[in-house]
TrEMBL record, chains A, B:
Keyword match Cell cycle: no
Subunit structure: Homodimer.
Cited function: Acts as a magnesium transporter.
PANTHER family, sorted: MAGNESIUM TRANSPORTER MGTE
CDD domains (alphabetical): CBS_pair_Mg_transporter (cd04606)
Location in or out of the cell: Cell membrane; Membrane
Gene of this entry: mgtE
Protein name: Magnesium transporter MgtE
Membrane topology field: Multi-pass membrane protein
NCBIfam families on file: mgtE
Organism domain of life: Bacteria
Record carries keyword Transmembrane helix: yes
Amino acid sequence: MSHHPDKFQTRLERLAEALDSGAMDQVRRLLNRGLAPVDVARVLESTPPRERELLWEQVDIAAQGEVLQYLNEDIQGTFLTHMDAPRVVEATEPLDNDDAADLLQQLPYARLQEVLDVMPVERRARLEAVLSYPEDTAGGLMDTNTVTIRADVSLEVVLRYLRRHKRLPESTDNLLVVSRRFELIGALPINRILVSDPSVTVREVMDTDIVTINALTHEDEVASVFERQDLISAPVISLDNRLLGRITIDDVVDVIRENAAQTMMNMGGLEDEEDTFAPVLRTSRRRAVWLGINLLAATVVSIAIGFFEDTIQQIAALAVLMPIVSSMGGIAGSQTLTVLIRGISLGHVSGANVRWLLVRELMAGTLNGLVWAVVVAVMAIARFQDYLLGGIIAMAMVINLMVAALIGTLIPIALKKLAIDPALSGGVLLTTITDIVGFVALLGLATIFYF
Amino acid sequence: MSHHPDKFQTRLERLAEALDSGAMDQVRRLLNRGLAPVDVARVLESTPPRERELLWEQVDIAAQGEVLQYLNEDIQGTFLTHMDAPRVVEATEPLDNDDAADLLQQLPYARLQEVLDVMPVERRARLEAVLSYPEDTAGGLMDTNTVTIRADVSLEVVLRYLRRHKRLPESTDNLLVVSRRFELIGALPINRILVSDPSVTVREVMDTDIVTINALTHEDEVASVFERQDLISAPVISLDNRLLGRITIDDVVDVIRENAAQTMMNMGGLEDEEDTFAPVLRTSRRRAVWLGINLLAATVVSIAIGFFEDTIQQIAALAVLMPIVSSMGGIAGSQTLTVLIRGISLGHVSGANVRWLLVRELMAGTLNGLVWAVVVAVMAIARFQDYLLGGIIAMAMVINLMVAALIGTLIPIALKKLAIDPALSGGVLLTTITDIVGFVALLGLATIFYF
């Protein structure tokens, strides 16, 4: 296998040694000859800021574009902002149009214009075609470099035409058949050229029922189409059916990966393209916002508890048991929330079946509420020798797990309707409510039954 | 675009209507003619169990294999177990070997043997070749259907050979060049056949520096290789370099997607291939385990609070403020944990830089601890008119956020060393510790300063 994780680690260590001992010649050799661009990017991403700058300066300009392409956006932005316009042009020159456009999008608008100004005219036009679409649409993902043919020629002619190319664009699995007005009328799979009689015309063997993607389609929708149809590439067209470019599976894989990372990072209130080695101040500032939102939620919970200060003063055991009721509600609610978020994102949940889901969740919540209420009641009675307290915490548990099932189902549906990502804010909202319900149920029931 | 989400919703509604009114003829027509197999699968996944059974019975046997392939494992298992062996063979007949093997793996061992026994000999041999590898390895992912050629023939001969095929296997971007002993010696990109002079030999134009994958490589590693090298397909070889099959990008996309879903579901203690419409009892049973683990953690927290029952009895305000300290610690710790888990999974974190990360996290934690401690102290003083209480909660906050940074960094590294998935158990472990530290700091400091 040409991919050796162990070899990579060894090289990483040798690189660190060379850097420590100041042997810059060796650093340069290791970076530029020993490693593929994707590995150089990984080395840079794995290095704290100060040494990272040093390493970056040793990367050959010819390789910088390729390396940049594999870095996360945080670092792309930092490096690009420190390069002057001609250098950016030089570094991105070896890249495909779509990849170059992705990179340039990390630049502030004014800098981007400077870079475009010093670029060869044809390249500039191609890049602007991609840059004119939002980054998260098919237009922003597409490569404008396509191989097009006419319908009325024979495969023999196509073969002769192809032999004039030195190589075809990467991931070319289809030749695109266009009209004189550059309207897309079909696709000819490369494999079909190979297995067909050379004398037939393109029209006779081309596919006309092809999957095309509108330039303004959102990238998530693009990923879903690729996945469902097992595509390698797909043509991108304008509203009037003109061919604009094509999207290839490697870019779609990036979208899928980024979305996955995004969900996980967003649940913690973090940026998905964050540099693992971001400096202290940037890290603290970004996280502070989420902590502030959480403080707001915790304060509301605290105010709810405040109403029962007298009850707690009388029965301190309640304060000891409080976290059990709230955390069980939080966990049960999160389970429901997660299943619903996944169901929604897979397109399973609709008006027709949401009532079934709500009933199922309520029944499962009640069942688990009853089971664990008994366990907790026994523990509470054993600890405090108080049967009433056992009964109260059991009741509070069942109430909280039922409410958790109810709002765990409704929150993602409501947030979805409001066009808010449930993965981002659903968790805080849910645990705030289950905390309040858990505490109020426990302390409220105690207030009623003891006084 | 041939993919119309709105049209899908309309069909779904018409299907529901037809099912409700018992018009089974219409249901059959809608299912078997109106929808692609992937969409039928989505309909089934979006339908509660009872109607799902009814719908499934209306799907033509010829289409059942394709539909099954797109269903989640939970439902695959249910449907397959209810089919007899000859029916399973008939339904899976149109599938590629790797896809058929994937499905059959959902059957219990005895049933799998029954199915293999009634299968045509050649198919059985090919399936057994795939089934002999664990499901999560390259061998379990591969398709044994490859197009192989010899090195010494001319491209002209290759072209003539290819024309004898009616079609090439899907995602064929390379012809694999093998020796007489079926050792892999090179790959010939399809595109290169098209742009090369037909009279040259395969050996002259083939690639010899190709990415190959060992059959026992883990699927995550396979996905990482595909992603890093932007592959469409890759040959799978045995330890002695013999060609066994090939893996294509569509299977790798499935692996990437499943991994992403898995992380999210596992964080809630849920199965990743769970049926959205699993029945109540199965749902409750699966979730109960996770709730039990959480109850254990909550009990430990509760015992810690129990040591300070007398203090709470004296100052009930502490019970009111408790959730603020613990939840801020939990959030800050989760942020650190998430960044570390992502850093580890991207291969950024190593012995060389973990100290840098720990220092950064501690500094960021302290900074945010100080900022929010002031805010919380001011709120506490305003609420309870008690400066000492304000000072105590501020100190508890700073302590808890520092500890959160420390253990948020160390937990994933420790779990990784123990070969435990940090995404699965890291969260509970972390919040249990931040809860205990938060409560003990607040109540302990109060005990010291007030008595």
